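Narrative progress, year one. The postdoctoral researcher (J.K.) led the effort to move from monomer predictions toward full complexes, under supervision of the PI. The following entry was the first complex the group processed end to end, covering 1068 residues in total.
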Amino acid sequence: MNTQSPSEPIIELQNVHYQIPSDQELLDIIKACSLSVQPEETLAIVGRSGSGKSTLLALMAGLELPTGGSIHLLGKPLESCSEDQRAQIRAQQVGFIFQNFQLMPSMTALENILMPLELFQIDDAKQKAMQALEKVGLSHRAHHRPAELSGGEQQRVAIARAFVTEPKVLFADEPTGNLDEETALQIQNLLFELNNDLKTTLVLVTHDMSFARKCRRVMHLTHGHLDEQTTEPSDVSS
Amino acid sequence: MKQLWLESLTASKWFLRSLKKGDWVWLILAVVIASMTVTLVKQLGETVQQSMLRKASESLGADLVIRSSRPIDAKWKSQAEGMGLKTAQSTSVVTMALSNDRFQLVNLKGVTDNYPLRGEIKQTDDLPFHALQENRVWVEPKLIGLMGLTPDSEITLGQIKTRLAGSVLNQQTLAPMGGFAPQVLIPIDTFNQTKLIGPGSRASYELYVIGDQKQIKRFSKLLSQQENPHWQILSAQSPTEDLEQSMQTAWLFLDLSALSAVLVAGMSILIASRFYLNRWQNSMALLRALGADNAKMQRLFAMQLSWIALSSSLIGVLLGYGLSVLLHPLVGHYFQPLVVADAWPAMLSGFISGMLVLWSFAWQAFQTAVQTAPMQILKSVPRTPNGIHWFISFALLLVLISLMLGLKSITWILLGLVAISVALLGVAFGLLKVMAALQTNSKGWFRIALSNLLKEPGLVKIQLVSVGMVLFVLMLMTFVRQDLLQNWQASLPANTPNTFVMNIQPDQEQQVTDILASEKLYPELVPMARGRVTAVNHKPLLASEQQEDRARRLLERESNVAILEKIPSHNEVVKAIDSSKLTLPTVSVEEGIAELFHIQPGDILTFNFAGQNFDYQVSSLRKVEWQSFQLNFFFILEPVAQRYLPISYIGNFHLNGTDETTHANPVSELTKTFAEKTPGVLLIDVRQIMKQIQDIMRQASWAVTGLYGFTLLASIGVLFTATLASQQARVQSWLLLRTLGARTNQIVKIGLTEFVLLGGLAGVLAASFAQVASLLISHFMLKTEPTLNPDLWLLSIVLGSGLLLVIGLLTQYSFLRKSPQQLKLYLNQL
């Protein structure tokens, strides 16, 4: 059940720390990060490789818990939720897109999109999956397996899978990192189009500044610290 | 409930979808092999066992016989019939028969008209054959010659005169007393009219029982509980003590072969599940990131694995049963009569084994997969091994093994498994260290082959252990089989004595020696006395206080006690005491008897011979090969001039069969001569007993060899699946080497060297364990002499390398010649 009121931020980080043990000392990955993301906002987190972008994304999505501070996702304090409660939040309101697509190699494109719907026994699963495939322009490739699709097509399938459950928040981890420039641009456009249509909050991790600037807000992660840099909305983002 | 139903629908849908795409193929194959093998081996084993039991039953005339020196209470017949068993009865007495003025000692047996319950009366052509009726008798063919019988002869037996109804073979050779005197069969009512049974008569009463094996066992248990001192219970399960031991070993081998096939299949599951683990973890991480909770994932995944276990076990069971049906004609060729066992128990065993083998060997991978952190979708998270899962795997494995071998041996199995697993892993770890050291000191393609092998030490450890296990099992079976066959064959060489001459009084010794010498037979006639041991260290030995049947029987009956200066050369002294410490005349004791009554060298034994007691001190313990048909004795006494024992002589020799041209039967001829010249001397022909034992052992050898071959094939099949299941890592290496510009012959060399190395190392592993295990099995289970076999090491290494090289060639050849593009395509499709 969503306890969030319309005016409340959809994601809120307060003084978040994340450390991992390394040899005999603790290594700071995220240091005192605070952040607030409003509903339907688009946020890009940029930074160099190894700066902790993906870790920050995992913390926001409840895939991992911070070692200090607090994170609220959709109004719920993640640090006081159990693993299964966090899973439930993700199941109901969160979508993901990954750099390496994370499609099941033995499943067809349609079956990959069907998977989350079947997992949560959602009605009319097949029809909804086909509609999602049509939205990403791949209905003709429904019965092809990932190995038979190009990188761009695989990411389209992954996008369709992310949107098919109509999530409130979409986390995207370097979604164009494995694609050529032209395909990357197509994927970016598709992502923002769907995001705009479904009024989803988008949290994007990337090192591609031109992609990042399409978001309403861009934040830099440097040595575990977040620095905000507001950008003008581009022609794609809302 | 509804949720669970919906989840099971989803799991079934996912399972079917993956099945269609061949996702589970290696797991399915391994489970199919395991359940098929168990079903086939159990079904054939049970069929063979029941057929052999039937053969033994036919020799006994029933499944179970109570032989008593007193009339058997009618309540036992009613009790047996009340349990749905069929019964027959007989009464036997050794008496003199008179015909044509000739007297002859015969074993007269009065039988009910349904005798025998198992097998059939086999008539011969010596006399016209009629049904057995009042005042008519069937005689053994040798009696015809001994008494000069014709079809019209009259035989006087006790107070009645009888006529001949035919001649029949004496089938019941496995029962004691069967061969002492020629048998005469008579209806039991006529037998009673002979009035031969009176006070002091040494009659034997038998109740024969046949029927359902479970009821037979129940009845047998009931009889044992009576502890009746006059009874002897004979069963087809253990027609003689020696044969029982051999048969028990054969059954052990059958169970071992099924178990080894299952363990080998288990290893394949271990490798296959490791191969699937990465894929499972990726799926799990994704599903967890998408919001599936841990319990739901466990349920969905467990349901899919259960589907695999269910469907593959079912396929395996059907295949196993189908194969057993196909093999029936072949088995029937060796086992007559063929008794096809009820298939359900074997099928159930096969099914449960399939389920258990999957769960026990895939449990680790299953648990690792379901514990996958959702964070793993973004980056790799180190795994934390959990000891409890090993414990669960191990417990499931124990259930499986106890199902196959019975719960009795569970403690030994537990200890053995822990020891073998730890030792195998330890040795594998050591071998990996050696390879790592070798890698730093090598160069070129050999170095690459080594580094490829060491790239995934975890996988190599599993491969090493599984290939080692396959070789180990094969070697172990080779040893057990060799021990079995050698033990059986060695016990009965071609010139084994097959005729015994006994009851020779001292004044007849020279005459008997002369008669035998005229037939070119020169046996040593051994002096002996009939007596029984009554006390150890002056403490009386009472039959009623003994726990074991054998001990009770020995105390109730007189046995042959030899009186010899020296211990025969075919006996081996295993324990002795310095003769200067002995104060009394000495006795050497057979080690089994010594163990039974806790007798040690130096102890004083009191013997009773014809009412007189004599003390002897134990000088040594001897090992005796009872199956050798040599003259063997539980006790050998030192001759003492002042002790007058009721001595008679006994000897044995090998006598050829009936002369094909003259049809002269040497046993009949000799019996006739002894009856005329040395009355009372008995000639016992054990050729038929030996033939029966040899037949049974030949059948058991065949079964053992057949199953050995099958397990060998199944094991090699499993090695193939294990190799293909770990293909991904290998193809990645070929791809890298190809990309770096390696030529085909270089890749072939590197690729096959990996296999040869793996096989050779596994060979070392297997040889060491097989050697230790064979020593232990020989000593503790087969009770045979353990032998060290240095050739084994060489054989094992060559076999391991050779086997893996062949498997490598067959499974890798096409991959080793593929272009980088083709290899990439293959990897993409995984």
